[in-house]
Design a protein that fits this description.
275 residues; alpha/beta; D-Maltodextrin-Binding Protein, domain 2; 12 strands; five-stranded mixed β-sheet; 2 domains
Length: 275
Amino acid sequence: MRTLTFNISKHHGFKSPATRTLSALALGLALAAGAPAAELPELRVGMDPTFEPYEYKTPDGKLVGFDVDFANALCAQLKMKCVFVEQAWAGIIPSLMAKKYDVIISSLTINEDRKKVILFTDKYSGAPNRMVAKRGSGIDGTPATLAGKKIGVGKGSAQEAYARKIYGAGGATVVGYAGTADAYLDLAAGRVDAVIASQLEVKTAFLSKPSGKDYKYVGPELEDAAVFGVGSGMGLRKEDTALRDKINAAVKVIRSNGEYKKINDKYFDFDAYGK
């Protein structure tokens, strides 16, 4: 498209008010068309999407869950753009250290061993851990009833550490899985005798499914402050204290303005934050 230009200033050394207005408008339109919109800074979030209802994938491959919605709310509060990076659980901390992402938001238990390696935010959720086994199996959660049997756990998880500490010493074999979904498959197939995981995850991902109808929680809630810590937090590299502080402040806002409860009530019928 050719442009017709009227230049009354070429010989007279001035522009009329109308020309100046048109020129300014043209300049503004040109800048608006040519200048890209400012993009929000990215927050790369590491997540293992095998932990329903916290983070998992729908059949069409969409990433969903409590932690996904929570992360997006957090990013909105921080005025950042969440970029989710999928990572198998066993490598979730090493990949953080390798700078594959900036923060882990994947129901990561805060405990002393992990504190030696990474920096944690304040707690943002908490849920008890339970053992699940087949009805009539004779397993009641005590080490004596697990002697000689196999217990499935997520590899590299706090549940694995607990199983090895309590049941491994009593003669049980602890089998680590890349994700608890695989542990449930083996439990239903009889390849392991019990699984230890978050109570909420066990209920949603297994007991509420057809494959879990013959199974139940066994024993009481599993407690060990040294292993399970105070709940789940977000993990960062040790040097990222400024980002940690911003995230902690944002979580307080989300908790106080009702956004956390809105997300919570989408997935749970109680406060997932815990005590």
